[in-house]
Structures are given as C-alpha cells and as structure tokens.
Prior knowledge:
The structure holds 2 protein chains of 2 kinds. Chain A is 50% helix and 13% strand. By secondary structure, chain A is α+β, with helices and mostly antiparallel strands.
Amino acid sequence: MKPRYQNRIELLQGTLDLLILQTLRWGPQHGYGISLAIRSNSGDVLQVDTGSLYPALHRLERQKWIAAEWKVSENKQRVRVYRLTAKGKRQLDSERSRWAQLSDAIAGVLNPTKTESEP
Amino acid sequence: MTFRWWRRQKRDEELEEELQSHLEMAASDVMERGEKAELARSAALREFGNVGLIKEVTRDKWGWRWVDDLAQDVRYGLRMMRRSSSFCAVAVLILALGIGLNTAVFSVVHAVLLRPLPYRDAGKLAMLWVTDTRSVGWAVSDGSTSYRDFLEWKREAGSFGDLAAFYKRGWSVVTLTAGDEPAKVQGAFVAANFFSLLGTEPELGRTFTEEDVQRREHLLILSNAMWQAKFGGAADVLGREIQMNGTTWRVVGVMPEQCRFPFLDVKLWAPLTTNPFEEPDPNDPLNLNRPQSVARFQVIARLKSGIAVRDAQAEMNTVAARLAREYPDTDKTLGVRVWPLDEYVTGEMRKPLWLLSLSVLVVLLIACTNLATLFLSRSVARRRELAVRAAIGASRWRVIRQLITESALIGLMGGAAGVMLTKSAMAFLLALVPVNVPRLNEVRIDPTVLAFSFLLALVCGVSFGLAPVRRFVACDSQELLKTGQQGAGGNRLRAEGVLVGAQFALSLVLLASAGLLIRSFVDVLEVNPGFKPEHILTMQLQFADPDAVPPARISDYYQSALMRVRQIPGVQAAGTVGNIFFWRRTGIMRCGK
Lengths: 119, 593
C-alpha cells in the first residue's frame, strides 16, 4: 500500500525522512533523542514537531528502513529505540545523492555562472 | 513489530507508552532547565502538541484504518436503525419478499438448468433419438428404435464409447401386487451396461450383470422412492421378493435418490430380456426376427472423450443413411439425432424458467425502486444530521460511505429474512410447481443459492442507498445548518418522480405479460377437444396378472363391469376404451377381433 505523504512541517517533502535516517546513522536512538539531535545539529533552526515526527517514524518503520525495539534507558524508563536497517542505509545514500543533486540544481539557478559575453 | 491488524490493541498501547515516555523525557529536560514541575509538564505538553491528533495520524500510517471505519459505520448504522425501527421493519419486509422470491426461483433454476446431471461426466451423455420424416403435425416420433438398428449403431458408431438400450416408456409399465391391490408402476427394462454407462453406483446391493441378462433372471433394482414406500427403507431389503406381473422377482439393489433415468417417475429396473410384454421365444430372447415396425427401444450413449456432439451427429447421419439403404422397408424415412442428455431432460423447461427468473427480477427491481423512494424521503428528515457531520469535518466520501453502509445493512437483513422465508416455504412452493418439471427432487438451498441471495441483497442495499446520496452531494451544508431547509427542492422532487415513474413502468410490464400469459392459458382451456368433457368420469382397471387370464374371461369381466357401472344411479352411459384421449402420447390402435 503506497503511503500518502502527510508531513506537516514546512520542510521540503521527503527531507524529514532524510534527516531521521541520517540521525540514526550515528547510532540507535529513541524518538525524543532524534528530535533533540535534529534540533541541535541544525543549530536550533529545524524544530521537528512531534506531530510530524512520530507518523514519519512509523511510516519509515513500515517500509522497513528502520527497525524498533523496546529498551530500558539509564533512568529505568522503557523507551522505544529505533535503528537503521541495511535497506534504510541504502535508502539514505540514495536520498543524500538526490538531495545533493537538488541543491546543486537550485544553486545553479540562484547563482548563474557568468558567461563570456559579460561586458 | 509487524503491522498485522489483530495486533492493533497492543500497538495502540505501545504507541501510548512511547508518547508518554517522550513526554516524560521532555518534561524532565525542561525541569533541568530550572522550571517547576507542573509548569515543566505543561510546557512540555505544549511543545508536544496535540497528543490525540498525533496518535490518530500515526495510527493512520498503520493502514487498516478502513476496517475501523467500517466497524464504526456499522455500529452507527445499527443505532440509527434501532431509532427508526418501524421504517426499517417495513424496508426489510419489502426486501425480504423480493429476495425470497428470487431465492426460490434461483434455487429451481440452479438445480434444474445450471447444475450438471447427477451422472458421471454428464456432459458426455446423449440420447440417440430416432427421427421420422413422416412425422407431421403433432404426431411426434418418440425416438424409439428396433433392436436390430441398435446393434447396427453399436457396431458402426465410433464416436461413442458405450451404448445401452432400454425399453421405451409404454413398454415398461408393470403391475405390482402387494397384498390384494394390484398397482401399475413405471418400471424400466435395461441392458447390463446401463448403470455403468450412466456412472451411478447403487446405494445398496449391485446392478445387473451380463449373465443376469442372458439368463433372463427375474431380478429387480428398486428406486429410492420405492424402497422407502414399500419397505420403509429397511436395510435388509436385498433378497426380498416382489410379485410383479404374476411372477416372483427378487430385489438385488437399490438406486440412490437422484437416479431418475430413463423416466422421471421410474420406480424399478429389471433386465432387458425379462420384459413381460415380449412374447417369450427362448431362441430369440430379444425378438430380433420380429417385424421391425414396432420400435420399442430407446438408446442412451456416452460420447468418447474429445468427440464433439457435432461430429457424432455427422457420423450418425451417415449410419442412418446406410441403414435406410439397406433396410428400405423399415428404415427409409428414419434419421438419428444425437440429443445431449441435459437438453433432453430439461430442454422444455429452459424458456419458461428463464422467463420466470426475469419476472421475479423485475419484481425485485420494483421493490428496490420502492425502497429508494422511501430512503429518499427519509433522507430529507436526516439532512440536519448529515450537515452537522459535514461541518465538523467528515469528508463527503465518509458521509456517503455511512449512508451506503446503513442501506447495505438493511439489504443484508432483508436478504437473510428472505432466505429464511423461502426455506420455510420451500415445501409449499415446490408443491405449486407442475410435476413434470425435471429434477425437482434436487432443488434445495445450497451454498450457491445462498451466495446468490447474499450478493443480490448487497447490490440492492447499495443501490437504493445511492438514491439520497446524489442529492446530498449537491446540497449546501452551510445553508442547511442555518435555515434548517434545503435550498433548492426541485432536485428531490424530480428524483422521486423518476423513481415512481420507473415503478409504474415496471409494474405495467409485469402486468401486461401476466395478462398475456393468462390469455393464452384461457385460450387453451377453450380449445374444442371434439367431445364434451363435462360430466365424464374415467377409471383405470388393472389385472394382477394379465397374462394368466384368458382373453375370453377378460372380455367377460369388462362386460359385467360395464353393466354394473351402467346401473349406478346417475350414470347416463358407459363405455370402454384402450387409451384415454390426451393422456401422455396416445396413439389410436385398431384391435383385431
């Protein structure tokens, strides 16, 4: 069943997935930790609200790009920890290259290289 | 964790727990930043957003939402039905009648026309029916042949794996004596390979062997009906004796209930060579040398696999042509028709049954249009509720689905009620059907019929639920809520008008057809038979053993019986006749003095 995108963040579509997958590349993490990591790594610019985070996490889990299990944290709390799967890693790489292509393309439009015909 | 539907409950709990733990961690972080406990929690909650909404959106991601929605719709529909129970009762009743009627007719159509005959590989069976070019008008040939011709067919025809002959109906009526009263019963005299050709196994005992036929053993195989009637279904019936046509016969087998070949009302089978109507000639048991003009056998054959009826027919045509040349005095005008068995048994019934099916479908259509009008007017009363639903955010599709679910529920309930109605009235309905409809004994409500009714009920339910939907789609909910009135009522009136018009049209079609059929029936009744049938009584006389009584005594008996009958007060005149007019296929025979 094809998942329908219902992200409510203002980021470009699909970038939330990218951010989550990238965050999990550094190691397994629970939902709260992921949102903290994204916020701090982006210098407090990207604040993922939980209304988008958890649906995204479950969607990614459904597509088998991340896997989850229950663990006990240091505070003796039960937390659900997500980790990247091999399939997810491949997806991450392809998304990264797509993102790189996209940003190059946009940069090309915003800063057109001067041609020889410049007076 | 897999996304199986039945683990939903657990997943729900886990999600709750996950969100809770997130909340806790966020709260403790806020507290670390120095705020007080309750403020921390409320701050975290604010950051967290609307928990309920998050849960709902996340749950959406799991898929399977439509099952939840459907369950919700059904529950709501049931509540609505309980609220307007009289309306629902009426709707269910109307639908029950319509669907019950269709179930009844379909069960007959299914048993008679659609299901294959209860013999092995019944598609390969065919009657070899003799046609006579001399048959004109209503003097129809009864398809019978002589034994000599049968042997020729057996030798020549390569399209058939096996052929079996049996005496035709008129030559197979026997007289049973049980106690004092003799009774005439339809029997059948069949060849040894008859049952193996058909592929039916006896329920008890065995079938005839070649030796039985050669030695002209007086053995009988009973039909299930006869076994029940005469022996009460006793298990020790094998070996019991029956008096038939003045001699003793022994029972060697019982056939299952669905074996009704070669005649619908056949009660017992006996070996081919034991027919009491044949004059006994030990040298020529089948009277091969008898004048061949009296054709008294009918033949059933099994096509070889891979051979089509068309090819078999072509082959039989050549065989018939050769026989016509070789025996011109008897076979000149004869041809052979390869008649597939299912057409032979049910052929006459096809058109009437399909006509009947169509008529009851039209009746159902009328019932549905009726219900559509009912639902339409009911939706007017519910417009407020629907407007509110639309206003608080239900998508249009959701509301439509709700309406259709409700009407589908009514449809299904009507269907169930209809099937139960038919089931309880089955015996009564079958009694109404004319007796000569073949395979009536096989009519029952089996899974196919149930599936058919279920489907029909569902389709009906959805279809008349759609009537108010169209109107709803066009309405303006804002205006509805404010003024409590529908903006433009024209649409609704037109829809209702169309529906009522459709009902009228369909009813007229049915009435006209019924009228025409009744007219034809009345015409048949008024055909002048050439004599006055009023005030005439008929009766049948039978002797326990006609062969044992010398002809002179028979005529004496008839004379004295006639005299006695004439003396009964009220009798104007009395006479005897060989065969009553219009009884089955009558011929006129001239009796020698």
